[in-house]
Structure formats: C-alpha cells, structure tokens
Amino acid sequence: MSDAASQQRSALERTESRASRGFMRRSLIQLTLVRFREFLRQPEAVFWTFVFPILLAVGLGVAFRTRAPERPRVAVVNSGAAGAAIVESLRADSALIVEELSDSAGSRALRTAKIALLVSPDANGGVRYTFDPVRGESSSARLLVDRAIQAGAGRRDPVTVAESTVTERGSRYIDFVIPGLLGMNLMGSGIWGLGFAIVDSRSKKLLKRFMATPMSRVEYLLSFLLSRLFFLILEVITLLGFGSLVFGVPTRGSLLQLGLICLLSALAFGGIGLLTAARAKTVEGVSGIMNFIMLPMWIFSGVFFSSSNFPSVFQPVIQALPLTAVNDALRANMLEGSSMAALGGELTIITAWLVISFVAALKLFRWR
Amino acid sequence: MVTSSSALVVRGLRKSYGDVKAVDGLDLEVAAGECFGLLGPNGAGKTTTIEICEGLLPRDAGDVEVLGMTWERDETRLRERLGIQLQDTQLSEKLTVEETLLLFQSFYDRGRAIEDVIEVVQLGEKTKARVGSLSGGQKQRLAIACALVGDPELLFLDEPTTGLDPQSRRQLWSLIETFRATGRTIVLTTHYMEEAERLCDRVAIVDHGHVIAQGSPAELIESIAATHPPPPPKASSATLEDVFVALTGRTLRDE
User: Fold this and answer.
1) Tell me: the pLDDT tens digits for A98-130?
2) In this predicted structure, what is the pLDDT of residue B1?
3) Does A31 touch chain B (CB under 8 A)?
4) Residues in CB range of A178: below 8 A, 6 or more apart
5) Which of A15, A206, A213 would best serve as a mutation to test chain B binding (most B beta carbons within 10 A)?
C-alpha cells in the first residue's frame, strides 16, 4: 500500500484545523517575529533594501539633473572688416558661442563636430552658412546665427513678443526614475525576501524540522507575507519621502491608491518569490532562478529608461511583465495623478501574476 | 498483536529509493516507558526507519502505529505528543537560544516553560546568545531542548551524540536518563555500542534494512557468548573513555 496520498490529505486537514483557531495566534506572532529578527540582524539585507535605492536615486538625480540647453558653438571665417562686423553681431546674441577661424581650420572644426556651423562672408556683402542639416544643433545654430546677423544688419521684427518661462515638476529624469526604483525595490524585496529565506530553511533541513512539529503551514507562509507588508510600508515611505523632500518628486494621485498599488505589487512579487522557492533545494540554485527572472525586468520594464524604447515586436511581452505594469501604474499615479479606475489594464496584469504565481507555488511547494 | 502498552509498533516496513532497498521488511515493538536503541552501521536504514516512524517520510509498505495512533488518521494529535531531533537540522544562527525555544514552543497547544527546558539542557548562561555562537555540543543540546518544549510522551533521537566530545556525550546521556526517569519513551539511533549499553533497555541491531537481532543488551551479549567466547577478562572493566573522563573531568569544555 502507499500512504503518501493519505499523509498529504491529513496534512491539509491539520493545516485547516489550526488556521481556523483564530487569526493572530501565538505561533503566527512568533513566526513573524523570527522574520523581523532574521532580517534586521542581517546588515547587508537592510543595506540593499533601504540604503541602496536611495544611493541610486541620489546618483541618478545628480547625474541627470536638468540643465539649460547647451549653446551652439559657431565659427566665422576671418576675412577682414566684413568678418569682424559679423562676429560683432553674433557676439551680441547670448545664445551663441562664437570664434574666428581660418577657412581651412573652420572646415576641419566643422568636420570634427567641434563647431555646429561655419559662417563665410562673401565679396559682395552676403554670407554663406556651411552646416550639416542632420545634426540638430546645426539646424538650430543656423536659425540663431541668421537671426543675429539680420538683426545686426538692421532688420526689425514686426511682431512684439513677450516670454514667460515655467519649470514643470514631473517631467525631469528624477521624476521618471523614482517610481521606477520603487517598482524595482518592490520586486527585489518580494522575490528575495520570500525565495531566499525559504530555500535557506529548506537546505538547512529547518523546514523539515518544522514539519516534525504541529506548526501550521499556512501560518508559516503567512508570517513571510506579514513581515513583507510591514517592511513594504517602511520601504515605500523611505523612498518616496526621500524623493519628495530632496528632489521634490510629485505625488499627484491619491496616496491611499498609491499604497494599494504598492500592496498589490508586493503581494504579486511575493507570489513569484514563493514560486521560485517552491522546489529549489540550494540557495545557489534559487539565486540563479531569481536572477534569471529579475534581470530581464530590470532591463525591459522601464526602471531607468522607458520601455517604449524597445521595438514594437517585443512590446506585447514587455507589457505583460509584472514590473512593467507596476512601473506604469506607479508613474501614472504619481506623475499624472491617474486614479486606479484608469489603470485597469496594469492592475489586471498585476493581479493575474499574483493569482497565478500563488496557485502554482502552493501546488508545487515542497515542504522537505 | 498490538498491546495498549506499546509506544511504537512497526510491522513489515519497506522503503526503497530507486533500486536501493533502504528498509526491507522491518519489525519493531517498543514498550511505553522504555529506552529503545536502533543500532547499526551507517547506511543500515536506521534514519529511514526512524523518519518513517516520525511521519516525515512516506513508506512503500507495512504498518506503523505510534502511541496507538496512525499517521494517516491522527497526524494532528500525534505531532502534539512527539518530540523529534533530526540528524542534520541547522537552527537559525541569527536567533538566540531563548528566541528559538519560544518559536518551537509556540507550535504546541501545551508546552513546557522554556526556562525549565533551558535548565534541563544546561544552557542557562547561553539564554541570550545567538545560535551561531554556540559550540557543537551546545547546538546539540539546543536541538534536544527544541524536542522537549512540547512536553512529549515519546522522544525520537537520531544519532544525538555523533561528533560530540566525551564530556558533552555524557551530559546528553544524563539528560536522556532524566527524561526516561519520568516514565516516558525514547527511541534513539546510535552507532556507539557503549552508549546503547548504558542507556537502552532494549536494542535492535539493524543491517541491510531489517532487524538481525533484538533484545536487552545483556541478553544479546549472553546469546553471542555461546558461539563467540568473550576475550579473557581485563584487570578492570573501565574503558579508555573512562580514563579520559577521569583525567579531564566531567565539566563541559564548551561553555
């Protein structure tokens, strides 16, 4: 006779009967406390979860801070009085950097892209612009140079123009990257937090030792989710608080809905973490699986640059990745102030990952 | 037939891993209140047998009854009443002794006070120490403490003293004797014969997956004396280990 099936059944009954005895039992509290203790007593885990995303945000925020557009550098062929007059009109325009070069030096500077445009006065008072129309700065240099020369020669604009400038928060790189880092952090701590700890316990035979006690399996898994939710709150507050206070990253949508998106995302990544840990016997094995899962999402899911940069053939796959949906939903909430009702597509994808990964993980999970 | 005073009854137990027959028709009966030893060389099937009895491994064939119950019907109740120490569990190194015991105790409906258990295994000075900082003997005593916090009626110990120095081993022996003195049952595996002789009321010698001899240590020695005459009596019955312990003292060195 084989009793594997009946053992399986009685194990399930055990799980149910214990889980139904009340929500926060002493054993669930102890298991959750163990999660906290193990996390906080691992300085490297605290660093990667809380400090690293902030260092990354500072680095990226400084490197890609918004600057005034560069002034195009142009050269005038030095050919006596006509050239000198042109140089004078150009220098009157603060949008240009002007230098005087010989004809051959000017051509060389243009070929090597040291200047955007070369101005050559001709014998009868006219000018010739030499430039490459494909280079963006050359085209704008042509417009700026022409405006300055014509104004210097006495042209007056018939329409009076007034300008007012604004700086829009939400359109800078740091505004793009903070929601991306938040998504990346939710993914990393969800997948690592569950996957690594469970496989570590399995490889040390601790999971088997727990199976030799009346411990409830539901409570064991629940303790991971409870501690994840607690650390989730800290992670979100740290990163968003930092982005908001230091860089003024906007949170235009409802904060409650932002919290719900984070919660849903954390659960989905927790499910994926559980799935990676369902069978793996060694920490090395599960690390490989987790990197295999996370690496494509770091690249394709729009953490550091928009996922729309990739060719449209790949888009259906990229859009179905959980991190793409999470990043899109976070950006829509924070930068555009979208409500959850407008994010049906993203939320459906995240929920689908949550349900599928949990069902698959519980079906495949090996307790030994 | 099974009597009500049996703590463990195993009949015709079989278990194979692929082509390897780890357990091949094994029978055992352990009376309540006795200390029973499973002896045998490495690979004889001791651990497979004990893990099937602990309800941790499915069996291929045979019957197992623990405290008058079976794993199929009574797993929930059985788990509450057993204390188990496995061969190579590594407890979490980041937790303290106290936190580890609190965790294990929380799984049981009725458990022993952890101060009590810490005293029994003599880890009082290490209560707040991380598991990672404990010596081998201390870790082993903590593993046994984890088996005791549920206040079990039946204790399974799988090679509890392997790899320990003589002082730690003797301390574990007295711990096991104390538990037995309360009238409860112990099933242990070992490959140290002097350990079995000292602790066990009865032993079963297992090889190639079945029992080749069973009885009290004295009976087994007598049965073998007829065919294999014992060596001429020594001047003293002391062993070299007794000399070692007499010279180096009984105090544990790993505190």
Assistant:
1) 988 888 899 999 898 889 999 998 877 788 999
2) 42
3) yes
4) A57, A239, A240, A243, A247, A249, A334
5) A213
